[in-house]
Amino acid sequence: MRVTTIHAAGDIRLEERPVPVIGAPTDAVIKITAGCICGSDLWPYRGENPITAGSTIGHEMVGVIEEVGSEVRSFKPGDFVIVPFCTCDNTCPNCDNGAHSACVNGGFTTGGQGEYGLVGQADGSLVKTDGMPDPSMIPSLLTLSDVFPTGWHCAVSAGVRKGHTAVVVGDGAVGLCGVLAAVQLGAEKVIAMSRHESRQEIARAFGATHIVAERGADGAKRIKEITDGVGADAVLECVGTDDAMRMAFQAARPGAMVGFVGVPHGVKLPVERMFAKNVGLAGGVAPVRRYLPELLDLVTSGTVNPGLVFDSVMPLADVAEGYRAMDERRAIKVLLQP
Amino acid sequence: MRVTTIHAAGDIRLEERPVPVIGAPTDAVIKITAGCICGSDLWPYRGENPITAGSTIGHEMVGVIEEVGSEVRSFKPGDFVIVPFCTCDNTCPNCDNGAHSACVNGGFTTGGQGEYGLVGQADGSLVKTDGMPDPSMIPSLLTLSDVFPTGWHCAVSAGVRKGHTAVVVGDGAVGLCGVLAAVQLGAEKVIAMSRHESRQEIARAFGATHIVAERGADGAKRIKEITDGVGADAVLECVGTDDAMRMAFQAARPGAMVGFVGVPHGVKLPVERMFAKNVGLAGGVAPVRRYLPELLDLVTSGTVNPGLVFDSVMPLADVAEGYRAMDERRAIKVLLQP
């Protein structure tokens, strides 16, 4: 089968590898209907994370079960499933606590930018649809693998509640899903920080009430104006850089929470400011499985359309171009069709 | 009147100064019944905070109103009041949001280790008792000025809920009040980290179910044992050092919250660990006024006896010895009688 590999910064290849086989009795093999490129894939692509040359890359996918291990009870070949980027047994104490991404039997999905994927802890990790979905639903279903629950986790971690004013730092696909999540969780004002017209449009489609194009001190000033000088009740940091984190804390009102879901790169937390202003921080690797039943309902009922974040669809053969397009911010998020 | 001043590290004096006078129409002058020394007073005493030579020190007090400004409506001379260490109007947007310590008209109380104190925003800041309290109640009432609501804020910030396992890092008066708060908020197991027998005793009196004397990796190991390998649901960091913060994050289970109320000194937050384990952090300067009605009820009803943290009572004249006793950890917390 063909699967995407990374050999060095900027060196993405589509290679022939054996179709994965069931290793553990809890595994499942998935024939991938759609995969995609994640913002976090750009860290190694840009040389900012270590790379094992020739390793597969890609952790988001939806598809049809091809084969299951002997202990898998809830799924059978032919089921259409959402594959969370992090796997879990959904029964350990961490899963019971809602921290599925720290499952004691968990791991990460790989091979998502390919033809077949291998998923561990299939019973605990996967969620299936009622029958085969309409092709028009595939993009939104694919967002359930990572980007939508990650934005959702950011909003939940930021404590977004009815009537809140929420600020979203970052206009990538996660940030846009954070806008969608904040709106769904009842925020009255949702301020998307974005300088890109195409991203602003999606933010508005997701329910953003305000767009702030300024950054840094100017951005903080605009947010103060919008919030009558108080600051935001909840802030979603959806990037992972020190600048973005700094912006998030500048936007927060005293007593607010900042949610964060961007893998931190060079972030130094402003502990003195946090203390003086009582601004907390929570978040991390999204416990996708925890949110899936609720978010799948939102998608299948047509309440939300997170698939809008895919502004580019490419055949798997063009994966290297997909990376270039996202790296150069020509594309928000690229959907890959095997 | 006599009031405590600090001139240099280790140089505490009791000096004659004029009795404070009403400056703003929202002020009140308090004849102090009891004041005390705060753990945070030890930072300048130890030379770890900048000092303005000759400035007054001390911010905790209870006493009787001597005089009020022309706009003070809710209090009159003769009322016995709790004086929060941070003042607030209790009406601004930050107060409405429960962030009273960031009140736009707020400030800090001073002169608490003296005979008379001046309090700003009297109507918003103060809470009075029903009549003059019995002298036996004074220590517990005095804890409402800072240390008990600060421990309470730590537990609230850590998200302590019914059935939780809570760990308290720090066995100073704030940490001990954190134990009391965690118990009152319904924690099933409360683990006090303490190596001092007299402090362990108070922790037990406040409801601690476990004492862990070990620190660092050994302490984390003991907490893992007590929590069946999972870690604590909520951790209260009541010190403010990097070691204590590190300990707090080691004790937390995935998805937990760390509350923090010790003024951070040299703390570097472990953002990568926080992200990987989904362990959040919240807290800061305690919004005392927010909690006062509830905590005053707990005290006056006899439900709790936070005054136990005062293991030493001295006349105001001995204030310098009080500082020495706390600095050398001979005393947990010193109550001063003017």
Automatic annotation (TrEMBL), chains A, B:
Q: Which GO terms describe its molecular function?
A: oxidoreductase activity; zinc ion binding
Top-level lineage group? Bacteria
Do the record's keywords include Oxidoreductase?
Answer: yes
Which residue numbers delimit the Enoyl reductase (ER) domain?
10-336
List UniProt keywords, sorted A-Z: Metal-binding, Oxidoreductase, Zinc
Q: Which residues form a coiled coil?
A: none
Please give the cofactor(s) recorded in the UniProt entry for this protein. Zn(2+)
Family stated for the protein in its record: Belongs to the zinc-containing alcohol dehydrogenase family.
Q: Which PANTHER family match?
A: DEHYDROGENASE, ZINC-CONTAINING, PUTATIVE (AFU_ORTHOLOGUE AFUA_2G02810)-RELATED, ZINC-TYPE ALCOHOL DEHYDROGENASE-LIKE
Q: Could you tell me what this protein is called?
A: IMP dehydrogenase
Organism in which the protein naturally occurs: Nocardioides marmoriginsengisoli
